[in-house]
Design a protein that fits this description.
The complex is a heterodimer of chains A (about 210) and B (about 220). Chain A has about 210 residues and is an alpha/beta fold. Chain A is built from six helices and eight strands. Helix content of chain A is about 30%, strand content about 25%. In chain A, helix 2 (about 90-100) packs parallel to helix 4. In chain B, about 85% of the residues lie in helices and about 0% in strands. With about 220 residues, chain B is mainly alpha-helical. Chain B is elongated and about 55 Å long. The chains are: A alpha/beta (about 210), B mainly alpha (about 220). Chains A and B meet through strand 5 and helix 2 of A and helix 1 and helix 5 of B.
Chain lengths: ~210, ~220
């Protein structure tokens, strides 16, 4: 699935409300590698991820996947942020079905739906409306979006928030599987995930120096 | 891309249907305003039938605006709007499809209710056809232009009032030609088709231009 071989971000800088959040930030990821972003609150982790996703304008810098394709960068990445994007009046299955079709994933028939939901143990509640889900279940549903429509780059902002320990392990397995298939991931997390991150970037130390 | 567009339209229609409140409020508001009008003006049938086109149109604009701030609001609040920008559809098309969904769930029900309410205002029954035609031609403009306001007021509190202030002036052309169509069909002598055609033109223009403006507003709001 993942055709992109590498991600290169060069010389990124971002200013929010007149304040320089980060500048001259560069990193590169190869297929199968993940980057862990760390640093204290407010240091710009979310800003960087949103900038990479094109949800925030960056002041300088370029981000490119290679080999270059006709698809723009934002169509080759998944973003999981603080908000889950779950519709409370649609069922778990309908929420997932929508994102699968919207993101152009392979058709989500009953069998595939069940396999995907089973990954986080959501299969017994497939017909439950989103309004009745707990915070952890909502987060799991948001993460399953990544599984229904394969895209090479995952941008995960605190993906393990409100997940229990077993689900955090499942999340780690899911990311590891994605990397094995040649994908890439940029993850911010305060909780150690025991995942072999090829790169680490501490935004807090960077600012101090 | 077509699959994504249909998925988005289907989802918005389903949400509007399940959540129900927005459609019900708009219809109820429209009904209440029209029922109150004859009570306030007294039983002068000639007067009522003369002002019926204007009242029916103005009340419809207000009823349509009532639910318009929800075009983007819910998706913005729960984070879906961010995710929609990462899909294959340009933001202009997302805005257009969401306006279309608003038209189907608000514009069409209001249009179907209008001839019934026309009876309460002594609108000649022969003119009901032109009333429905004019509303059918004009309500797309109502929904699509409202999307601009919905985009501009995204994330603001009490956005409804601010939106009405910004958007109502933009409804003036549609209102003038909509009322002219219905009035001409009652009193003549001019043909009602001419204003109806202009109304169609206004709607078509808003169909093309509003999504561009709404998408620009959304981009500014998402930053």
């Amino acid at each position: 699935m993942a055709r992109a071989k590498s991600l290169r971000a060069r010389n990124l800088s971002c200013r929010r409300g007149g304040r320089l959040i980060f500048e001259k930030l560069s990193f590169a990821l190869k297929s199968g590698e993940a980057l862990l972003l760390t640093g204290p609150n407010g240091v710009g982790k979310t800003t960087l991820l949103r900038g990479l996703a094109g949800l925030l304008p960056l002041e300088h810098g370029e981000i490119a996947l290679s080999p270059a394709t006709d698809q723009p960068l934002y169509e080759q990445l998944h973003y999981v942020g603080h908000l889950n994007g779950i519709k409370t009046s649609l069922s778990v299955a309908e929420n997932l079905q929508f994102w699968c079709e919207y993101y152009g994933g392979p058709p989500l028939n009953e069998e595939r739906l069940e396999t995907v939901l089973a990954r986080f143990g959501l299969d017994p509640i497939a017909q439950l409306p989103g309004a009745l889900l707990s915070a952890g279940q909502k987060r799991k549903l948001a993460l399953l979006r990544l599984a229904v429509a394969p895209r090479p780059l995952w941008l995960l902002d605190e993906p393990s928030v409100s997940l229990d320990r077993a689900s955090t392990r499942h999340l780690r397995d899911m990311i590891a599987e994605h990397l094995e298939e040649g994908g890439m991931a940029v993850v911010t997390s305060h909780i150690p995930m025991s995942l072999a991150f090829a790169h680490r970037l501490d935004l807090g130390k960077r600012r101090a120096s | 891309m077509i699959r994504a567009a249909l998925a988005l339209l289907g989802r918005d229609l389903r949400l509007a249907w399940r959540e129900g409140g927005a459609i019900g409020t708009a219809l109820g508001f429209y009904f209440a305003v029209i029922v109150l009008t004859p009570l306030g003006l007294g039983p002068d049938l000639n007067l009522l039938s003369r002002i019926a086109p204007g009242i029916l149109w103005v009340a419809l604009l207000l009823a349509g605006l009532l639910s318009a701030d929800r075009i983007f609001h819910n998706d913005y609040e729960d984070g879906s709007l961010d995710l929609l920008t990462l899909g294959p559809l340009p933001l202009e098309l997302v805005a257009g499809i969401k306006s279309l969904a608003h038209w189907i769930t608000t514009g069409i029900p209001l249009t179907l209710l209008a001839p019934v309410l026309g009876l309460l205002l002594n609108l000649p029954i022969e003119s009901s056809g032109f009333l429905v035609l004019s509303l059918l031609a004009g309500t797309p403009a109502v929904s699509f232009v409202a999307a601009i306001g919905a985009g501009l007021t995204l994330g603001l509190r009490r956005s409804g009032v601010l939106m009405a202030l910004m958007i109502l002036p933009l409804y003036v052309p549609a209102l003038i030609f909509g009322v002219a169509t219905v009035s001409a069909s009652i009193t003549g002598p001019a043909s009602p088709w001419a204003p109806l055609m202009i109304l169609c033109g206004i709607s078509l223009a808003s169909l093309v231009l509003s999504p561009i403006a709404a998408a620009a507003a959304l981009r500014a709001a998402l930053r």
